[in-house]
TrEMBL record, chain A:
<dbReference type="InterPro" id="IPR011882">
    <property type="entry name" value="PaaC"/>
</dbReference>
<dbReference type="InterPro" id="IPR009078">
    <property type="entry name" value="Ferritin-like_SF"/>
</dbReference>
<dbReference type="InterPro" id="IPR007814">
    <property type="entry name" value="PaaA_PaaC"/>
</dbReference>
<dbReference type="InterPro" id="IPR012347">
    <property type="entry name" value="Ferritin-like"/>
</dbReference>
<protein>
    <submittedName>
        <fullName>Phenylacetate-CoA oxygenase subunit PaaC</fullName>
    </submittedName>
</protein>
<dbReference type="GO" id="GO:0005829">
    <property type="term" value="C:cytosol"/>
</dbReference>
<dbReference type="Pfam" id="PF05138">
    <property type="entry name" value="PaaA_PaaC"/>
</dbReference>
Automatic annotation (TrEMBL), chain B:
<protein>
    <submittedName>
        <fullName>1,2-phenylacetyl-CoA epoxidase subunit B</fullName>
        <ecNumber>1.14.13.149</ecNumber>
    </submittedName>
</protein>
<dbReference type="InterPro" id="IPR038693">
    <property type="entry name" value="PaaB_sf"/>
</dbReference>
<keyword id="KW-0560">Oxidoreductase</keyword>
<dbReference type="Pfam" id="PF06243">
    <property type="entry name" value="PaaB"/>
</dbReference>
<dbReference type="GO" id="GO:0097266">
    <property type="term" value="F:phenylacetyl-CoA 1,2-epoxidase activity"/>
</dbReference>
<dbReference type="InterPro" id="IPR009359">
    <property type="entry name" value="PaaB"/>
</dbReference>
TrEMBL record, chain C:
<feature type="compositionally biased region" description="Low complexity">
    <location>
        <begin position="338"/>
        <end position="347"/>
    </location>
</feature>
<dbReference type="InterPro" id="IPR009078">
    <property type="entry name" value="Ferritin-like_SF"/>
</dbReference>
<protein>
    <submittedName>
        <fullName>1,2-phenylacetyl-CoA epoxidase subunit A</fullName>
        <ecNumber>1.14.13.149</ecNumber>
    </submittedName>
</protein>
<dbReference type="GO" id="GO:0010124">
    <property type="term" value="P:phenylacetate catabolic process"/>
</dbReference>
<dbReference type="InterPro" id="IPR012347">
    <property type="entry name" value="Ferritin-like"/>
</dbReference>
<dbReference type="Pfam" id="PF05138">
    <property type="entry name" value="PaaA_PaaC"/>
</dbReference>
<dbReference type="GO" id="GO:0005829">
    <property type="term" value="C:cytosol"/>
</dbReference>
Amino acid sequence: MSAHVDYLLGLADDALVSSQRMGWWISRSPQLEEDVAMANIGLDQLGQARALLTHAGAVEAAGRDEDDLAYFRDERDFRNVCLVERPMEDFGVAMARLLVFATWQHELYGALSASTDATLAAVAAKARKETAYHVDHARQWTLRLGDGTAESHDRMQAAVEAEWPWREELYDAGTLAPELVERGIAVDPGTLREPVEARLDAVLAEATLSRPDVAAAYSRGRQGRHTEAMGYLLAEMQHLARSHPGVTW
Amino acid sequence: MSVEPLWEVFVRSRRGLSHVHVGSLHAADAGMALRNARDLYTRRQEGVSIWVVPAAAIEASSPDEKDSFFDPAVDKVYRHPTFYDVPEGVEHL
Amino acid sequence: MVLHAHVTDADICNTACYRGGVYGNDFTAPEAARTAPADEPASFRAILVEDGRVEPRDEMPEGYRKTLVRQIAQHAHSEIIGMQPEGNWVSRAPSLRRKAILMAKVQDEAGHGLYLYAAAETLGVDRADLLDALHSGRQKYSSIFNYPTLTWADVGAIGWLVDGAAIVNQVPLCRCSYGPYARAMVRVCKEESFHQRQGFEILHTLAHGSQAQRQMAQDAVNRYWWPSLMMFGPPDDDSPNSAQSMAWGIKRFSNDDLRQRFIDMTVPQSEALGLTLPDDGLAWNEERGHYDFTPVDFTELFEVIRGNGPCNEQRMAHRVGAHEDGAWAREAAAAYAQKQAQKQAQRQAREQAQKEGAA
């Protein structure tokens, strides 16, 4: 598989898997208004995933469409970071993760809107607007949970502690072919660290949360080495499509 | 008891038009109310601008005062252009 | 809340007499005492006579208000409980296009619940109290959502049949005599029009797909047909409050009329799908200009309403669980708002003091 396709799949899978986790919250959030908001965010992410998967399929030129790529790849072929695949059934965790992920996506898509891959640039320009809203949403809740009640402060601090170790993979250029960056297709993830971290630190400070002093988690999703949660996520997502291969839905 | 106050939501559907009342929602503060209004009332591109107003801050006329408030305007027909006779053939008036 | 009706007691659940709720419908048992029309204020009657709209602060009979609160609340509860059976398939939707459509649809249902709670609140009740009435079982939601979604085709059947029946119920409510309810329904109906179509499209695709898909579609229609007909409520003879609701302009057509309209609409659609409806008695009656059908056996409906449906407990546990699990976040938002308001007040006081000092 070409490095270009691999790169696109990484971004697509981040969005797809994140959307899958977000979808769980519809009907389960703290208030009805939040159900609507989380569905909006999940739908934006799903839209990004579909556009990127379709584009990856086109670049690959092997006749695979968005559904072939979403439903008929196995766990080891998924390229998303481990951050997004882990269980997300606590509202604090959901918001802490969204804060990290959306802030990173927002910086990334900002840079990618100048990509020499014109389709990717167009997807990124659209997604940048969407993720700006996601960042704002996560920030609003981080402030409220962090600087709300004593209980919410503790729970949000714990959520931040749980998510922080999984950030490192977002900045890791390990598997990215340098040639893609040289050709102006991809962005060197290392360059995102500074702006993303600065924004995250500012939100934590404002939310009276302390920046976790934690070691990076072993996270190699970009290489298809996922956490054990990933298999279950895919089993659920893919089982129906795989039970009836070749049909139309 | 509700911990979240009620907010009335007004949406401008496009530039050039006024904000129109579309409904209400609950939120702990104005910031969240505005964001909730965006998600709830403009999912289908219904708006380009939103106002949220604490429901408690709105003072409304009462139906009991309908007669004294609104009936006195009924006989002031001279406020409308159709009240006036214009000779036939006169244009741009 | 001067925009809203003035009420002293938030009487939100006069449900001892409750027999069954349909969203966009309301019916209670015969023993329920109806408010005599004698207490109707002349201004209220005058509005109804000219087919006008009653607005929140208008004078209205207590019975009218209570009926509306109960009906709108049940309608809102139905929307939000209705998120669950379809939400059950969001994670497993068989294509990304279907997943997006389903997420948007389930999201709409939350939105519809919110529009309706907002309409109910104009009658002087608090959404928190209405939710409490739902959570404690004092108020009901449409029994249709106590059936499980067993296969993907159920998502199609719910869209086609359940949303189809709901639309037949709801379209006349856009002309309901109570303004805020009517306006909420206009918004809901506008948004719902895609719901039924996407359901029909799912079933059409399945019905024209593989043998297994076809079977899946037929099975779902078989299971959802009769519960959909029950959504219109018991026959008119058994539905004494319908008459009062019609006199008040809340309800425009009787249960039986709406049910017949739904059947007349749906039978030709089933033919277009190439699926059968599980009623041997279905036949066009030239003389009546309607389809005849086998009378609905309401025993099952009443069992489900009594709490003995397949999913009653599960739906309530899910809803109550979400509410309780989210309490800490709602409390945090309230505490934060309070802190911010205090800070703002202090800031203003300081600025004021500085101004005065300077002067």
